Recover the amino acids of this structure.
């Protein structure tokens, strides 16, 4: 089917910057032309403020169902590690149907938040008792089905989780659904490629869960399976992980990775919270993306990423909603900047230059870094440019938070004074999947989610 789209924006953020009176045409989901300074014509669909869709580079979609259920302090005090136990317990009751239902709501909400692509870091591979499904791609296919249902562009990141800790420590009972050796993992990667085969703009990368979960030879095998695609890894999220890595290797996690793996522009280092200035300089020099998940990192008490020094060194970052406790691009960017303000006791810490807008600086960086982390090199144009998929959003022009705002003030007001509620429409591959802030299938997706979550929570 040949589908033509003609949109007209009062103002839009193009790769060259803010442009007024913009007509954008697309066919079969891909942008054909973008022209500024033109009056709307009869066939144009008219909108106020147009922005390119963002990439959400790190998600565990099923964790959406756990949001808000881990906010009670235990007898010994709470940490990432006690949270992880609760997450494992939740996961024990998630089967294929539940995974698809939870992921569908998470993906729909990502679209409502202005994320048009998601990187799903997928480490849940086996049945509840730990035995493999007959189809090794059973759960990958469920994630692909959720992407198809919602329309979001999917970068599926099948993840090797082989051990319970550094030095090939045996996995715990509750990790049995994640565990593979490299041979079985290779079959899951193949099955993942088949699962996304018919999804527009989909891509398969690979991930190693963490340095805790793979040995050095296994990490090399994971990287080889990427076949030129992207490679993700959780790294240095927790101080205990840094201490354990030092005890195991004499090196800190980021330091070890840079010395032993061919880290380059295809790599995404998720978190990198506990890295020294020298480590972050080296990451920046390699051109790798750091995957920041500021809301989850706050929620889990991980620590504060040294973003100011990293960006000053030319470091690239993208955003992840990770635990999906909140799904809101503006909130991620705001939390990132606010963490720096609290740490440095200063304002507008992450603005790219004197006089630059902080919102614009953060939006541009997250747009570029997010797409770099989720698409293989050479994937073609991105943003509101000819040849790119038409992945875009509009903001509610007459929202109280946007009255009298122009150009970068719009981004500053959305990010620092707004939230998901400022988003009006979202297009993915030329299809309008969100209108009035609501995903077109939200009612049905919510019903299925409610039924699945009741089953999981018993
Ligand atoms: Zn994660």
């Amino acid at each position: 089917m040949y589908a033509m789209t003609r949109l007209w924006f009062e103002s839009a953020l193009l790769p060259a910057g803010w442009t007024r009176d913009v007509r954008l045409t697309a066919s079969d989901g891909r942008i054909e032309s973008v022209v500024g300074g033109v009056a709307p014509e009869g066939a144009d669909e008219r909108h106020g403020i147009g922005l390119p869709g963002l990439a959400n580079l790190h998600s565990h979609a099923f964790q959406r169902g756990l949001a808000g259920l881990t906010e009670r302090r235990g007898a010994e005090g709470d940490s990432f590690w006690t949270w992880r136990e609760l997450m494992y317990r939740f996961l024990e009751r998630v089967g294929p149907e539940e995974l698809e239902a939870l992921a569908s709501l998470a993906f729909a909400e990502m679209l409502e938040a202005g994320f048009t692509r998601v990187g799903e870091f997928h480490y849940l591979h086996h049945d509840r008792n730990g035995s493999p499904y007959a189809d090794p791609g059973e759960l990958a296919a469920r994630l692909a089905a959720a992407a198809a249902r919602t329309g979001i562009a999917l970068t599926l990141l099948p993840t090797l989780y082989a051990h319970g800790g550094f030095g090939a420590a045996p996995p715990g009972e509750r990790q049995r659904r994640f565990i593979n050796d490299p041979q079985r993992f290779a079959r899951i990667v193949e099955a993942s490629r088949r699962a996304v085969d018919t999804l527009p703009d989909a891509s398969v990368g690979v991930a190693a869960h963490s340095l805790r979960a793979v040995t050095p030879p296994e990490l090399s095998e994971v990287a080889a399976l990427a076949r030129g695609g992207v490679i993700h890894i959780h790294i240095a999220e927790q101080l205990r992980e840094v201490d354990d890595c030092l005890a195991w290797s004499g090196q800190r996690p980021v330091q070890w990775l840079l010395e032993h793996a061919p880290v380059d522009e295809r790599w995404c280092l998720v978190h990198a919270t506990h890295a020294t200035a020298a480590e972050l300089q080296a990451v920046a020099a390699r051109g790798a993306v750091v995957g920041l998940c500021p809301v989850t990192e706050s929620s889990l008490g991980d620590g504060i990423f040294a973003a100011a020094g990293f960006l000053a060194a030319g470091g690239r970052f993208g955003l992840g909603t990770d635990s999906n406790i909140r799904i809101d691009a503006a909130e991620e960017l705001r939390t990132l900047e606010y963490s720096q303000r609290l740490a440095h006791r200063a304002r507008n810490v992450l603005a790219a230059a004197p006089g630059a807008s902080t919102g614009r600086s953060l939006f541009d960086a997250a747009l570029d870094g997010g797409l770099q982390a989720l698409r293989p090199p050479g994937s073609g144009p991105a943003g509101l440019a000819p040849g790119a998929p038409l992945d875009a959003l509009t903001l509610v022009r007459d929202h109280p938070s946007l009255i009298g705002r122009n150009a970068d003030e719009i981004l500053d007001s959305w990010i620092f004074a707004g939230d998901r509620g400022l988003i009006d429409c979202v297009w993915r591959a030329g299809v309008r999947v969100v209108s009035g802030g609501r995903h077109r299938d939200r009612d049905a997706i919510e019903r299925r989610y409610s039924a699945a979550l009741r089953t999981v929570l018993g």
Remarks:
- The two ends are 44 Å apart (CA to CA).
- The chain has a mean pLDDT of 96.
- The longest strand covers residues 4-14.
- The chain is about 35% helix and 20% strand.
